[in-house]
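Q: Second attempt. The first request was missing the SMILES, so the protein and adenosine-5'-triphosphate are both included now.
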Amino acid sequence: MRVMPYERTMIRVASPSASLDVQSSKSSQPSGGLYFFLGAIVILLILLILLFVFRKFINPSKWKTFFACTRKQPVAKDILSRNLHTISWFDFQTLKKATKNFHQDNLLGRGGFGPVFLGKLEDERLVAVKKLSVDKSQQRESEFLAEVRIITSIQHKNLVRLLGCCSDGDQRLLVYEYLKNRSLDLIVYGKSDLFLNWSARFQIILGIARGLQYLHEDSHMRIIHRDIKASNILLDDKFQPRIGDFGLARFFPEDQAYLSTNFAGTLGYTAPEYAIRGELSEKADIYSFGVLVLEIISCRKNTNLTLPSEMQYLPEYAWKLYKHSRLNDLIDPRIREDGIVEKEVMHAIHVAFFCLHPQASSRPAMSEIVAMLTCKVEIVQTPSRPIFLERKGKKDEKISWDSISEALPSPLKSDSPSYQHSK
Ligand SMILES: Nc1ncnc2c1ncn2[C@@H]1O[C@H](COP(=O)(O)OP(=O)(O)OP(=O)(O)O)[C@@H](O)[C@H]1O
Ligand SMILES: [Mg+2]
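A: Got both inputs this time. The predicted holo structure:
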């Protein structure tokens, strides 16, 4: 029978001579604790030798970054705990390298929050790095991270994906997936040679509507974008739209749920109740969406002061054309040439008019807009006049509605390559 160690001790304790044996054997053999102590010293010595040998390869600034990151990680982890699976924590050096030290050649654009750079990560992934020019006194670390948490906790195919963030000293950076076809303003405002046919434009309109429906109604929190406009709509390689900068509006100080003391938005897209009284609700986004739909259909900017006065503000011009049964003139002539289903375009313009209703409460919800666009509900209402200032232009400035379409510069004059939307 095999005797267990404790059994052996029990037997020996029973006899005084055996007890002496135990003591003598203990003093002649080193204890386990001593082995452990010696082992630790040997490992420490090896580490010191390695440190001495490789000291010239160790960059003190990298150590500083490393320690800074490890200090911040617990804060970030704490705040982002629910979403760690969706977000990466980038260190500043990685993003500096990816964007070639934020080189001008990599500059994609510059917005209200700072410049955006194209970056290539070590795993070859292309990213758009937004360098926020945030004043530390206004934007505290926890607020920045809380914001990132909101953005990463929502995902939809029509929203730009935030891949990660970086918070290092005063630097705040957001890392987004890079979208190959950049932003819609480049196409709509003619900064690019690309031409999108009606089918592609309709897919873009519908995609934006679905993204907004998710933000307003379907995500676990109610999110108002506040800055829906062509430059915040990004297009992937198949020209599917993704709304960018959602939630970023919350970076503004004194963010409030309804009455907003700080205006955040872009002139020309802003709902009247929000611009004048600071009343903020989803309906402000819906108004901006209405303006954007008109821009996509007509391929022009919402405000263009170089045009005759009646044509300068797009919703006003669209309404006047509607009243004169001339809505056809609003449509980008290139999509007319391409052979559009006129009924579909008119339908989309009508939906835009509903979004531009002067009273916020009378504008449809985003889910209703999606249903209208996909013809799941029939439109029975007639649109109301959008809000705009009546002009008392000088007599000689007045132009006849017969000649008005000739005054609009025709995009047909440019030889643009055409893009056929692949379904
Ligand atoms: N994820 C991205 N992929 C590709 N290009 C991007 C991406 N994000 C931004 N851009 C480009 O960078 C430009 C600047 O973007 P940014 O959002 O900072 O400014 P903006 O949209 O013009 O103004 P705002 O600050 O009001 O949103 C965009 O117009 C777009 O062309
Ligand atoms: Mg933007």
